[in-house]
Design a protein that fits this description.
The protein is α/β, with parallel strands linked by helices. The protein has two domains: about 1-55 and about 180-220, Periplasmic binding protein-like II (D-Maltodextrin-Binding Protein, domain 2), CATH 3.40.190.10; about 55-175 and about 260-285, Periplasmic binding protein-like II (D-Maltodextrin-Binding Protein, domain 2, 3-Layer(aba) Sandwich). It has 13 helices and eight strands. It has helices at about 5-15, 25-30, 65, 95-100, 110-125, 140-145, 155-160, 190-200, 205-215, 225-235, 235-250, 255-260, 270-285; strands spanning about 1-5, 50-60, 85-90, 130-135, 150-155, 170, 175-185, 260-265. Strands 1, 2, 3, 4, 5, 6, 7 and 8 form an eight-stranded mixed beta sheet that branches. The model has no long low-confidence stretch (mean pLDDT about 95).
Length: about 290
Amino acid sequence: MVITNGQVLAELIRLNHLAPLDASRLPAFFANADESIVNPAYDPNNRFTVAWQSGITGIAYDPNRTGREIRSFNDLFDPAFAGRVGMFGDVRDLPNFALVGMGITPETSTPAHWRKAADILRKQRDDRIVRNYYQQDYIEPLKKGDIWLSMAWSGDIFQANSEGADLRFIIPDEGGILWTDSMCIPVTAPHPVDAITFMDFAYQIDIAAKLAEGINYITPVPFARDRIIRDAGAASGAAQAQMMATADSPLVFPVRSDLARLRRYRVLTRAEAAEWNSLFQPIYQS
């Protein structure tokens, strides 16, 4: 079994590298999966994938350093924060988040939209607003104060705050990105039945609750929240507090109004990916 997302997943599907899933072997998935991850646009009818966990790309900031609330995508371009802004250095979140920030739906965006997004990101870089472009290494600079606000993933901020940080995570007024890491089975897998059995196992409510407690990203099984609350009732002390923090967090169990403000990645053809990459890679690689 493989867990992946975005353009890599789209290429695996396009190249017929994934085995179709036998829906009859996924009873827990169809009984318990949240509607937001059933029949996704990137894999209609879940023919090849089921969600592992999801997350939100938004903005995290240290309110003790920014001196004010952060609410907008445009705050990442504010000259007042010059040299204190972190952005993601990739061709997935950086371009899609910029499109959302500009009021453009990534899923239906055009090359003309991409060029406009590249223009504003290039200007942000050239104006020295950005301190650095990060992969998964932005949390420490954010905690230390090297950067005051940054593009961020929801689960990272939940985990950092659980360990004592004082950071805030927001979905900007313009919206954010909802991404999903998906489980899938390569056509060459030697034990595909074992793989699909595990995939469905992860959708049992008890198991999904344990995964949510350990992973701290958005669970695909909303019923897991009630199970965590029930288990917290039998716990005490720090364990109980952590369980309730997970159950009450909108970063693990987002409300519908937040989900409605999120968009998905643009799925690209191979030709589109070449143009997309040529626009956005030089921004963070130069």
